[in-house]
Fold each of these.
Amino acid sequence: MRKTDIKAVDPLLSLVLLTRLPLPPLSKESFSRQARAVWAFPVAGLVVGTLASLCGLLALCWWPPLVAAGLALAVQVLVTGALHEDGLADTADGFWGGFERARRLEIMKDSHIGSYGVLALILGIGLRWAVLTALFDAGLIWAPVALGVLSRAAMPVLMASLPNARGSGLSQSVGRPPRGAVLTGLALALVLAVLAIGWSALPAALLCVPAVLGLRALAKVKIGGQTGDVLGACQQVTELGVALALLALL
């Protein structure tokens, strides 16, 4: 990735796309860099994860790890506006609620949530809460940072390796990122994860690769590509996969 492909505005772009934090307005020209700015997606994960970890650290002064983990998850949901959780629910509804590609995409676009989406949210939040409780109990207070950066570095992998399935929406507007931006994001995420929790982040990241590849294969079969909802589901699945792998390694 050439130096000219990295701009100071890229981290701000990633925060605009992936969080609901109050940020200074960006010029219209800045948004033309969205595809090349995906290398900075881990920066958004770093911000979200750091806020969650600080909340957990503070909560542990008064409450047990179960409560601290729940509050840390609540912070993540508030900071991101439940963007990724919404994607997980819509993806579950669409993939298993329709019998053909067009109907699946229609269901995913619908703002209503169905049984599959509800179950996906319950299982996703429940498992993340349980695993994060165990990680906090083991002393890995900065685990949300590692989970945040690695899971958001996985999203551009799907963006680059699958076409947009709908031809519209957030994923389409961002565009297909260059390989250099994807690889830079992955390298940045690995460095930040190691700094956060140590070398155990590397095998944990490798162990979640099958989850990403599995979701990619499923998306290709079900809708012929990826959408913003699928990318949100990727973040959720990868975060849980890394967390489970990290817990298993402990």
Amino acid sequence: MPRLSPRTLGIGAAVVTVLVWTAFIVIARASAARSLTPFDLALARICGASLVLVPWGAWMVMKDLRQKDGTTASSLFGLSPLSLRVTASAGILGGVAYAALAYSGFFFAPAGHASVLMPGSLPLWTTLLAALVLRDRITPARAFGLALIVAGDLVVGGRSLLHAFEGGEVWKGDLLFMSAAFCWACYSVVARRRGLDAVRATIAITVFALLTYVPVYSLLVAGGAVASRIGSAPWGEVAFQMLFQGVGSVVISGITFTKMIQYFGPVRSTMITALVPGLSAFGAVIWLDEPLQWNLMAGLLLVTAGILFGVQKSANSGARHAAMPAVPVTGMGRRDA
């Protein structure tokens, strides 16, 4: 069997990453009209990813122990390859909070809003947090790119906020999408500050979510505090959500995004993933019959331009970061943002 060239692997990884990220938005919105609640979807995501990542984490910890080099840490019964403190901070932000907020948003706002507000808010929050926590410098060029992103977010989300007093609920979804992006940005800054490996970080947040979210969810459902329809939902739907939301969105896209970073570097990878807002918005028009309103189109153009303009000026430093492993997405996100 012939080996694939690095170029072929890089292009293939980019295609898979963009397709999975795009499908995540469209499928999550479509799922809001079916059987499961947002907390059921988060459960399916965590359990699906755990089927792959928990055994992987246990194997990785045992391998580290056999090497006995004294430089590795583990926690949570030897399932997480990171220390408890790092696992908890990353797991709360990148695992539990992101999933709960993002899936809840799709029950109020259309996929087109998610297409703009989640990937649009992410570089904004990440840049601001990196400036505050990591003392990163915001260049005039990046500031202009962020201004375009803010304008795009306001064009889309501002309209729903203006209609909030008229009884609409879309604004709730918009705020949830932006809150999910904020949580992921916090996780990205934590990962960058501690220099976390992509695979280890993804395993750690999944293990943490499995051992915290699942028991809390079960107790709240048993006590009647949280509604759940997972018991009455078709098993085919539950299995699909575990496969796509867990294995696809967390495991596969995490691996392919890391591979894409290795070949294209962080700058060009960001340019490639800038296709996601437009593709997912048009996917929602085609498959979900959502209207492509003028404000959504304008927001897409502004956000995409902001992302591209912000990374263009970073091209000179791209080679310096090209070998840096990226934290894989659990829906939407980058470590190099």
